[in-house]
Amino acid sequence: MGKFITFEGIDGAGKSTHIAFVADYIKQRGVELVSSREPGGTPLGEKLREIVLHETMDLETEALLVFASRREHLAQVIEPALKRGAWVISDRFTDSTFAYQGGGRGMSLAKLEALEQWVHPALQPDLTLLFDVPLEVARARLDATRDLDKFEQEKADFFAATRTEYLRRAAQFPQRFRVIDSTQSIAAIQQQIAAILDACF
Ligand SMILES: Nc1ncnc2c1ncn2[C@@H]1O[C@H](COP(=O)(O)OP(=O)(O)O)[C@@H](O)[C@H]1O
Ligand SMILES: Cc1cn([C@H]2C[C@H](O)[C@@H](COP(=O)(O)OP(=O)(O)O)O2)c(=O)[nH]c1=O
Predict the structure, then answer these.
(1) Residue pair 183/134 in contact by the 8 Å Cβ criterion
(2) Which of 43, 59, 101, 161 is 20 to 30 A from 69 (CA-CA)?
(3) Atom of ligand 2 at shortest distance to CA of 94?
(4) Alpha carbon of residue 146 to chain centroid
(5) Domain range holding 113?
(6) What residue owns the CA closest to ligand 1's atom 15?
(7) Ligand 1 in contact with 76 (CB < 6 A)?
(8) Which residues line ligand 2 (CB under 6 A)?
(9) Mutation test of ligand 1: which of 141, 147, 182, 190 has the most ligand atoms closer than 8 Å to its C-beta?
(10) Helix-, strand-, coil-residue percentages of the chain, each rounded to 5
(11) Can you give the CATH number for the domain in which 61 is found?
(12) Residue 97 C-alpha to ligand 2 middle, in angstroms?
């Protein structure tokens, strides 16, 4: 079996910045690597991503759509890759649903746990890198760079609740989570990530 590594954090925390670095670091070890993202990662999942990121909908519809995208991602990409011994890195996975639909929007965590049990009863990431920053830092980074999607336009209290739920998950599953202080410089963060990855080989 390969290894499954997920990247998490509130929008603007710096996740995307480090994915290419991690991909290169793993490939240098001669390991087959699959790099993917959620919502998305498959043709159907990418269609669902467009809908989830840009349309207003009932909260439970939103949760069901991200889990539908995930089921397809697992079936088509993640599970076959891990079985053949490849490593998979995913920009977001189920912790995002707990943080955004659970923490941010207030959906019952018990319902999300039921969906998680349904969609991937036996699989959890081997490693989850949680990029953690204060809200003001994330907001300033976002404002400086890009047009904002539906989630990125949410207010500070939404992201405060999202961040709190991420940190709760990290405390609940300390064996797979590594919380990275993303106020550090990019170089310092990459040094920390390299040390974390070295321990995985
Ligand atoms: N450690 C850092 N220090 C300063 N700027 C950063 C840092 N990490 C990321 N950034 C910048 O912040 C912005 C958002 O980063 P990004 O990786 O796109 O965040 P995310 O994928 O978590 O939403 C980008 O312009 C990026 O260059
Ligand atoms: C995977 C997932 C993502 N999301 C949200 C979080 C992000 O705001 C958004 C995906 O954006 P993101 O992955 O941050 O992409 P980009 O870097 O292009 O902005 O989807 C959920 O609300 N629930 C989920 O389960």
Answers:
(1) yes
(2) 161
(3) 25
(4) 19
(5) 4-198
(6) 14
(7) no
(8) 11, 16, 38-39, 53, 66, 91-92, 96-97, 100-101, 149, 151-152
(9) 141
(10) 55, 15, 30
(11) 3.40.50.300
(12) 9
Query: pLDDT tens per residue, the chain (201 residues)?
Result: 999 999 999 999 999 999 999 999 999 999 999 999 999 999 999 999 999 999 999 999 999 999 999 999 999 999 999 999 999 999 999 999 999 999 999 999 999 999 999 999 999 999 999 999 999 999 999 888 878 888 988 889 999 999 999 999 999 999 999 999 999 999 999 999 999 999 998
Q: How many structural domains comprise the chain? A: 1
Question: Residues forming the annotated binding site for ATP?
Answer: 9-16
Ligand 1: which atom is nearest the Cα of residue 145? 25
What is the rounded distance in angstroms from the CA atom of residue 30 to the CA atom of residue 113? Answer: 36
CA–CA distance from 170 to each of 136, 138, 152, 201 (Å)? 21, 19, 22, 22
Q: Are 66 and 112 in contact (CB under 8 A)?
A: no
Annotated binding site: 9-16
Nearest alpha-carbon partner for 192 in 39, 38, 4, 14: 14
Which phi and psi (to 5°) does residue 184 adopt? -70, 170
Tokens of 11: 């929008």
pTM of the predicted model as reported, rounded to 2 decimal places:
0.97
Q: CA dist 101 to 7, 52, 135, Å?
A: 17, 12, 18
